[in-house]
Amino acid sequence: MGENHRSDPALIQACLSRDQSAWNELVERYTRLVYSIPRRYGFSEPDADDVHQNVFRILAEKLRQLQDQTRLSSWIITTAHRECWRLRRAAQRIPALPANEQADQSLPEEAVRRLERQHLVRLGLEAVGDPCRGLLETLFLQPAAPPYETIAHSLGMKVGSIGPTRARCLQKLEAILRELGMEGWDE
Amino acid sequence: MSKGCQNGGSSPYFEAGSPALLNGTLDTTMTDHDVKIERLLAFAAGELPEREAMEMKNMIASDAELRRQYKLIEIVRSTLREDDSVAAPAEVVARAKALFQQMQPVPAASLRSRVQEWLDAFDRVVAALIFDSRTRPALAGFRGTAELVRLSFESDLAEIDLELNPQDESGQTRISVYGQITATDDAGGAPVVLTTAGSHDAIAQTVCDQGGLFEVTVERGRYDLHVRLPSGVVSAMEIEI
Question: Looking at CA atoms only, how far is residue A5 from chain B in angstroms?
Answer without folding.
Answer: 18
